[in-house]
Amino acid sequence: MQFKLNSSSSLTGGRSAGGKGCLTVFFLIFLIMGVVATAAVLIEAGRMAAVWFWPEVPCTVLSGGVEETGDDSDPYQASILFEYEVDGRPYRSTRVQRGDTTTSSYDKARGPSDRNLPGTSTTCRVNPDRPDDAVLEPHLPFIGFVALFTLIFVVVGAGGIYVTWKGPPGALGAGGGESISQRARGAKGVGRKIGLAVGLVFTLVGGGLSIFLLFVPVTRLAMAVTWVETPAVVVSSTVRSWSTDDGTSYRADILYEYEDAGRQWRSNRRSFFPLGSSDYGDQKATADHYTPGTAVSCFVHPDDPSRSVLDRRPRPVYLIGLFPLVFLLVGAALTTSTLKSGRSTAAEVSGQATTSGRDHRPQFETEIDTAQQTLEPEAGPITKVVGMVVVAALWNGIISVFLWQVYKGFVTGNPEWFLTIFMIPFVLVGLALVIGIFYMALAAFNPRPRLTITPSSPRLGSRLRVGWAFTGRAGRITHLEIALEGHEKATYRRGTDTHTDRLAFASFDLVSTSNNWEIPQGTAEVEVPEDTMHSFTSNNNGVVWTLMVHGDIPRWPDVMETFEIDVRPLARERLLP
Q1: Nearest Cα residue to 283 out of 295, 301, 299, 271
Q2: Backbone conformation region of residue 33, classed left if phi is above 0, alpha if psi is from -120 to 50, else beta
């Protein structure tokens, strides 16, 4: 029998290279998607920001207006023609700004024309490398804020790969023989950084969406109470549709005209909520209500006649803006909890040391334990199968909603490629869980071990006798290993999550045989060295002793069972000089 101190068990070694490879591929998909998306967003933001560094040149607006693009998603675009000179040579351009200028809002498309009326003298920005490339109005690169969302994928991917291969600082194999308590304290530092990064990203994304979908619409709705009711006429009415990740969205686009301050104005602002709807019937009914030529009333801002709205009544649709608050609250809670965890690290470590030291004091007992105890596996085969079925059902039930959208896109000839690629890692996990169900179901037919130990609670420095016997077809097992292992257990926080790690500090190989006549049943003895640690449990740390059984069955799930036992401190007489 072999005793190994401060080593990992052959039965419960670290994560296999194959497992690390699968996790690496899974997180690598997240990382690549996040990096590509973030790079695209930042490149576009950089292109828009570069305009501010182009030289300003005098120019004259020749014409302006709003034109239709033919795209239902963004049907309007500012149309402005302006003229300028570079080195004595005249140029003309229609570029209002760098980047896409199409929009679903007639007001936004009309804005540049209102600011640059025909005949107006103003300035434009000219590309120093291409004089024919000019922009009338530079804009701040707000698109860069989208990177806050794409960075979530980068953080998840990079953090997952880091933890998969390196693990928390102080892990066995990276830091030698450090204890799991030291490993847990090191992991807290990594966990706090990851938790803080994720918390900040969620806070910023949730805050941005809350401003866009909740605070701005509700504020405008409240302010519109003072707007002036004004006669208007419907110019056009149609239902616009476009494909999204969730299917097809519809919006009733009502273009109306009114007069204010001696000028004719046009707008398609029907309400202050910016999103479309998946209910075609509802939008069609709205469009039919506002038929072209119908006299209606709109509400115009008393100090700015360019701002108007058809419907200023509060409606349930505005409550959709409450959903981003969930991201904001979760992000704020995660960030706050992570910061508090960082401030309380010293106190937690001190508390663990005090508790650990108190619990490590041996409890002197003098009775002799010769009783025999029969052990059963910690979890039965049916329990394992049911647990795997529940996990697989929950996971695949959630992703099935998104897979249905992917399926609908391909059936209708409008595949959602981003959603399709995004769902790949989640589908792979779902398939792995389904395979796990079959694996657990096959393992349920394995021969089951039953162990007996004498004494029922061995002491450090005493001998432990282990007997084993299998029910079922034990002849299918070609190789049997039984080991007694001591694990140090530590519970710690990583961000806002609580984790429990185990590190094997000692291992005893009781049985390692391929003899057919030894495998079905037998006994073995081992002495538990007195210089190890007895079983104990505290709030954050503990020592657990287990008997591990591994039966190798070719071309079939192996027998893998764990039995926990109680190891008591040294006897009083062994401690006295």
Answers
A1: 271
A2: alpha
- In this prediction the pTM is 0.52
Judge contact between 241 and 267, C-beta under 8 A.
no
- Name the architecture of domain 448-575: Sandwich (2.60)
Rounded Cα gap, residues 189 and 170, in angstroms: 11
Q: How many CB atoms lie within 10 A of CB 452?
A: 15
Residues in the chain: 577
Q: Which residues pair with 541 in a beta bridge?
A: 490
Contact indicator for 487, 546 with CB cutoff of 8 Å:
yes
Check if the beta carbon of residue 97 is closer than 8 Å to that of residue 77. Answer: no
Tens digit of each residue's pLDDT (9 = 90 or more) over 21-58: 767 777 788 788 888 888 988 998 898 899 999 999 99
Quick: pLDDT tens for 431-484.
888 888 888 888 888 888 888 988 888 888 888 899 989 888 888 899 999 998
| Phi and psi torsions of 445, nearest 5° | -95, 5
Domain map (residue ranges) of the chain: 55-137, 170-225+316-343, 228-311, 448-575
* Phi and psi angles of residue 324, each rounded to the nearest 5 degrees, phi first: -60, -20
Place of tokens 């009783």: 371
308-309: strand order across its sheet? 263-267, 247-260, 228-244, 295-300, 308-309
- Cβ atoms 31, 83 nearer than 8 A: no
> Could you say which of 3.30.60, 2.40.50, 1.10.1060, 2.60.120 is the CATH number of the domain covering 228-311?
2.40.50
